[in-house]
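Limitations
The structure tokens in this dataset are predictions for the assembled complex, not deposited experimental models. Users should treat interface geometry with appropriate caution, especially where small molecules or nucleic acid strands are included. An illustrative entry is reproduced here so readers can see what is and is not provided.
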Amino acid sequence: MTMKYISILLILLSLVSQAQILDNKRPMPEVDVKSIDGMNINTKDFENGDAPIIISFWATWCKPCVTELTNIAEVYEEWQEETGVKLIAISIDDARNQTKVAPFVNGKGWDYEVYLDPNADLKRALNVNLVPHTFLLDKNKQIVWQHNSYAEGDEEHLYELVKKLAEGGEVSEP
Amino acid sequence: MITNLLRVLALLIIVFSFTKAQGQQQSAGELHGNFQVDAQYYNKDSLIGAPVVPEKVLTNGFMNLWYTRGDFSAGIRYESYLNVMQGFDPRYRGTGVPFRFASYKNDNFEATVGNFYEQFGNGILLRAYEERGLGYDNAFEGVRVRYQPTRGVYLKGLIARQRTFFTLSPGIVRGFDAEVNLNELIYPNTVKKTIVVLGGGIVSRFQTDQDPIYNLPENVGAFDARLNVIRGKVNFLAEYGYKYNDPNATNGLIYAPGQALSVTTTYSTKGFGLLLAAKRLDNFDFRSDRTAAGIGANINFLPALTRQHTYNLPATIYPYATQPNGEMGFQAELSYKIKNGSLLGGKYGTEITVNFSGTNGIIKNPTSNDTLGYTSPFFKASNEMFFRDFHVEIHKKFNSKLKGTFMYLNWVYNKDVVQGLAGFGTIFADMAVVDISYKLAKRHTLRLETQALISKQDLGSWAMALLEYTYSPHWFVAVLDQFNYGNPNSDLQIHYVTGNAGYTNNGNRIMLQYGRQRAGIFCVGGVCRNVPASNGFSISLLSSF
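Predicted assembly:
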């Protein structure tokens, strides 16, 4: 039993001494996801030139997630014109609802890039507890901000950060 | 065993970090994780059947710590149940590190030792996953390899045992899966209009036979085949699974093979979506322990073919659960957005969803060979209705401040079959939901949600109201009342009232709740959680870092 705790301690110590635990930025993890038309893609191929990327975890059954994406959809064109931002929506729907994702997204008329994460590999790699959970990536694809849950109006704060990044400013609240 | 694994892990991490650090100038890696703790103080409440809790306070907590560095990653999850909260399986007892892994991944190869989650296709044959809020975790422990010999070909193999709470299930699971995306394989650099993906897997379970009476198969094999064709707006997906003789605790120890078939077609364009799906399951409960029943040791994943509801009366009072040993179901869903600026659409458009799903039993004709149990015509369902859900949902934004969701549902629910009970029969219920949100000022929003469930059977009718105030981006408060006003027992016509408040900052969140809670999925304050029946004060803390 003691050995077990010593081992855990050892692991933690070796990690803490090595890792950039309190670094203000974090690179996007490289994980395979599926597009809604069946193609496999790695997150390292998420691309938006020098403009910021928003990554939003959601599910078809998650009302606050859908509210968030619907609200952003209304201003998305404007956001894109002003800042070039791209929103990538990661659906955590499992086999029960996965086939619904494409008709759902189309039914809503959303213009987002949408991917599936059926084995929750990306969700785990980004340590997401609950949905909705939103991340903001800068032009170097470093995670500079995250937020869980959604309340009406949250997108305004997000957009302030997007604008700051688009104007070449720094955001660092990972 | 655990100690050894941890020691190996520690060694690996140390060796890796030093060799790499000396080899080249690169980042020392990243350490990240997440954390959640829930604690509840329980009041005695015999009315709602909340049991007496001698400890007064119960807590569940966990932390994931994940280290990645280049192609290498390793991680652990510590879990603590002191003692486990009401509504979770009591086999979660004490504390431990039930999840630990090390993994190496480059562009086309990945090897993982220790614990991992995996899914073949849509999980009809094999799926290990976690649902921490529900206390569900059937992670594998063993070895897994993923290999991509060429673009478009995806191979996976694993040998592992399965987690059941703090122990491992007795069976050994061996699995191999291959998936070929013909487009990626044949035309890697061009975009084709038609995409074809073929897949298939084999899974076998080994468990010793120590039964004094029966000669039980120690190795039980199963396979599946999948086809996915996507052409423009149409997506067709079919999956078939077959399981060889597997006498087990849930099928009454019959030796008949099991079968599963699921077919889904969707058509969608901007503003219009249509889904048609059908499935059949016969004797397809597949576990890494033939004696297991209830929750635990499931190798495959057979979700219900019905809409997963978000509003809490439809989501929690009569939710359907798959009957893996015999059901036939269908689902149709149409979603349509009436365009902005049209007469019916108004300035912002109107979204409409219509969904109809139903499941019946299968016909089981007794046979003279009682080891096979029964025979069943493949394309015929029995007349026994398990579940029906018809509903219409309309979402409308009236102006920049006011929007609403309106829903009507009509349900048929066979309580005896779905919950494995007797004497409750089939319940008919109508439900309605009105969810209005009003923006008081920039960042200040008030939301009122009212729901009703009308039924003359079982617990009778329910009414529910939720008032929520959010102050973006940090705060929310809410009051929720569920009133079982139609309960045939007038002593049980009670109000379940809870007050909630929460604060969110970036990846951190704290939530408080006081009151009487019915069991179910509750979506309050911008997140959805699954909670058991209780009365008392609870606090929930979570953080991603």
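Some entries come with short summary sentences. For this one: Chain A touches chain B through 73 residues (CB under 8 Å).
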